[in-house]
Amino acid sequence: MKVSCEALRQVEAICEKFNNDPGELITILHETQNTLGYLPEEVQAVIARCLGIPAQKVYGVVTFYSFFSMVPKGKYPVSVCLGTACYVRGSDKVLEEFKRVLGIEVGEATPDGKFSLDCLRCVGACGLAPVATIGERVYGRLNPSDIKKIIDEY
Amino acid sequence: MIITSPDALESIRQEAAKSLSIREGSNNGNSAEPAGLEKGAPHLQILCCGGTGCKASESAKIVDNFRESLKAHGIADKVDVVVPGCFGFCEKGPIVKIIPDNTFYTSVRPDDVEEIVTSHIIAGNRVERLLYQDPVTGQHISDSQHMNFYRKQMRIALRNCGFINPEDIREYIARDGYKALADSLKRDSLEVLADIKASGLRGRGGAGFPTGMKWEIARKFDAPDKYVVCNADEGDPGAFMDRSIMEGDPNSVIEAMMICGYCINAHNGLIYIRAEYPLAVHRLKVAIEQAREYGLLGKNILGTGFDFDIEIRYGAGAFVCGEETALIHSMEGKRGEPTLKPPFPAEAGYFGHPTNVNNVETLANVPIILTKGPQWFASIGTEKSKGTKVFALAGKINNVGLIEVPMGTTLREIIYDIGGGVKGGKNFKAIQTGGPSGGCLTEKHLDIPIDYESLSAAGSMMGSGGMIVMDEEDCMVSVAKFFLEFTVGESCGKCTPCRIGNKRMLEILDRITEGRGTEEDLETLENLAKTIKDTALCGLGQTSPNPVLSTLSNFRVEYEEHVRDHICRAHKCKSLLTYSIDPALCKGCSACARGCPVSAIEGEVRKPFVIHSEKCIRCGMCISRCKFGAINVH
Question: What is the pTM of this model?
Answer without folding.
Answer: 0.92
